[in-house]
Amino acid sequence: MKIILMRHGQAEDYKQPDSSRELTDLGHKQAAQTAEYILGKYHPDFFVVSPYKRAQQTLAALSERAPDTPVSIHDNITPADDAKIALTGLGDVTAECLVVVCHMSIIAHLAALLAGDSPESFQLAEARVFEMEIVAADQAKEIDRFSPEQP
């Protein structure tokens, strides 16, 4: 199976609660670029997304292009959540190609857990593709990555 981890696009400054921050115009463009890349190369059969606004808006770029793909909101993939708990929750999702849209720093920790490596920051709207037999720590190999236009 494949798990594609995608960070949200550029978000507005902290003028409101973190969970309410929206994508900027550039953030929407970044999300669209990454969505085009993912859907042009892979065939996701399930989307998982954080409940935060900017992640939801990033996912919209994928959902608009793949409207029949089911979506699940996971409350445990927000910026300060525990990656080990989040990984366990992702293991409960039945999919051959799962896209997870969330935030720094949890996304870097999820990637590190999957590959048995040290956390490495993701660019805005960056996607990394991991291949594995089962969703578990130290079981994945990174096979691809894409990063759109950066500010």
Task: Tell me about this structure.
This protein is an alpha/beta fold. The chain has a single domain, classed as Phosphoglycerate mutase-like (Rossmann fold), CATH 3.40.50. It contains four helices and six strands. It has helices at residues 25-41, 53-65, 83-91, 106-115; strands at 2-7, 46-49, 71-73, 97-102, 127-131, 141-146. The chain has a six-stranded mixed β-sheet, with helices on both faces. Helix 2 links the parallel strand 2 (46-49) and strand 3 (71-73). Helix 3 crosses helix 4 (106-115). It is globular and about 40 Å long. The mean pLDDT is 96.
Short description:
This protein is α/β, with parallel strands linked by helices. It has four helices and six strands; from the N terminus they run βαβαβαβαββ.
Question: Could you give the topology of this structure?
Answer:
Blueprint: E1 2-7, H1 25-41, E2 46-49, H2 53-65, E3 71-73, H3 83-91, E4 97-102, H4 106-115, E5 127-131, E6 141-146
Parallel strand pairs: 1-4, 2-3, 2-4
Antiparallel strand pairs: 1-5, 5-6
Helix pairs in contact: 1-2, 3-4
CATH topology: Rossmann fold
What is the share of helical residues? 25-40%
Shape: globular
- Average predicted local confidence, pLDDT: 96
* Count of helix runs: 4
Distance between the termini: 33 Å
| Poorly predicted segments | none
Derived from helix and strand composition plus strand pairing, the structural class reads alpha/beta
Total of domains: 1
- The fourth-level CATH homologous superfamily is Phosphoglycerate mutase-like
Question: Quick one: biggest sheet?
Answer: 6 strands, mixed
- What is the CATH class? Alpha Beta
In quaternary terms, these chains amount to single chain
Element pattern in H and E: EHEHEHEHEE
Strands side by side in the biggest sheet: 3-2-4-1-5-6
Give the total of beta strands.
6
Rounded radius of gyration (Å): 14 Å
Assign the CATH architecture.
Answer: 3-Layer(aba) Sandwich
